[in-house]
Amino acid sequence: MLLLILAARCSYASDADTISIQQRLRQALAQYAPKSxxxxxxxxxxxxxxxxxxxxxAQNTINVQYFIWSxxxxxxxxxxxxxRAAERGVTVRVIVDDLLIKARRRxxxxxxxxxxxxxRIYNPKHSVGTxxxxxxxxTASDFRGVNQRMHDKIVTxxxxxxxxxxxxxxxxxxxxxxxxxFRDRDILLLxxxxxxxxKSFDSFWNSExxxxxxxxxxxxxxxxxxxxxxxxxxxxxxxxxxxxxxAPVVRxxxxxxxxxxxxxxxxxxxxxxxxxxxIPGKNSAQRGLxxxxxxxxxxxxVLQQAQKSITIQSPYLVLxxxxxxxxAKLIQRGVRVRISTNSLGSTDNLLAxxxxxKQREKLLKTGIEIYEYRPEPExxxxxxxxxxxxxxxxxxxxxxxxxxxxxxxxLYIGTFNLDPRSANLNTEVGVLIDNAGLAQQVEQxxxxxxxxxxxxxxxxxxxxxxxxLRKRIKMxxxxxxxxxxxx
Length: 487
What we know:
This protein has two domains: 9-270, Endonuclease Chain A (Endonuclease, Chain A); 274-486, Endonuclease Chain A (Endonuclease, Chain A), CATH 3.30.870.10. The protein is built from 17 helices and 19 strands. It has helices spanning 15-32, 44-56, 73-87, 105-113, 132-141, 143-147, 193-205, 213-217, 226-241, 248-267, 294-304, 323-332, 350-366, 380-383, 420-425, 436-449, 469-478; strands spanning 36-41, 61-69, 91-101, 117-122, 154-157, 161-165, 180-183, 186-190, 210-212, 269-271, 273-277, 309-313, 336-342, 369-373, 396-399, 403-406, 410-414, 429-434, 455-457. The strands form three sheets. The chain has a nine-stranded mixed beta sheet with strand order 9-4-3-2-5-6-8-1-10, with helices on both faces. An eight-stranded mixed beta sheet has the order 11-18-17-16-12-13-14-19, with helices on both faces. It has a two-stranded parallel ribbon with strand order 7-15. Helix 2 packs across helix 10 and helix 13 crosses helix 17. The longest helix is centred in the middle third of the chain and has 20 residues, at 248-267.
């Protein structure tokens, strides 16, 4: 359906297509006002195309907020698409967390030099403009501060359409990595909920924690020469037109988006949708690694209301203080709790898995049903499409989706992992929707992920032994470390 910001010039929308899509969208918004629209993006390819379609058809503004932005195929194509939007007059604002941004210094400065592009780095204590010595000092002098990251992932366009969910800007989130890809989940949003998302974005944009990239990287009074800026722009455009960087099916899908848009709108669910987000900095705690946040409290409130069932999908499963007792009480009053998470074989984060491994027996004793994702699940053939071309070896497929469903009616899709870091340190976002149809649609997908062909049942299957020996050894070493509060 729709993918990332990965559009080449051949995917340029004509003025007629853009007007047509904008008209259809505004007609739908008027028809269903004051409700908001939601369309769940389960596949990496459709989520990438969704971003590409929104960016290619933007007329006025694009706001982008991400935890990870890599200097790989997807990251470069995304940057080029935003540059093209800026070149046709769209105002582009980008906030990226400092911890895992991977971008060339010259590219960041060149993009920020465009009059329609503004880039800010959140909490720059690790990477951008930070020396190794300074990084070590930051960690030693302000351990809590360096661990407070912006985990938000949103794109908003023209104040009327947006996407949020688990996916960052890197190959592995859109089925483009040859060794490791994620089973993730995003949601396309339309209408009034986008206003809530832009309000949250503005709070981060105006925070003192978000620093203009020029302020971090520019040394001396001389700006980057115009000819060097132009060269970098040309390099990005040339990269986006290189056939090896695009699968033909993606190019064709982008060209077909205007014709598909009516079908997409027909599949949108319209209802009241609440966007929940943490404040910049997460909380006001000054010491320790606790503190909670807006998103944490909102999710606890929803889970506490459960009468029959809770279904959760989270890549990491490390309960913060009080979490074990919280779920035990729910189960004691008859609530069935099922959690889909990664196995040792599929996880991308051994530190987080070591924290889960410490708790696993206690979790199972409370009555929580845990399903650990296989590294090569059968559902991979349906969810992951080889958009990057033929693969000699089947890549590992791991859960990265963050979803909560209560009583098959209340649905959360966002960035919140079931771990102490999301609860207390990282800022998180997501949407809460009280809609049985949409909740059951997503829940059915998670139950399929839990099926024996896709997951091992923790406590019944010996999944750890299926992981490589090296991974097992590392995990057992990490278990010895007192890292739970930062996992």
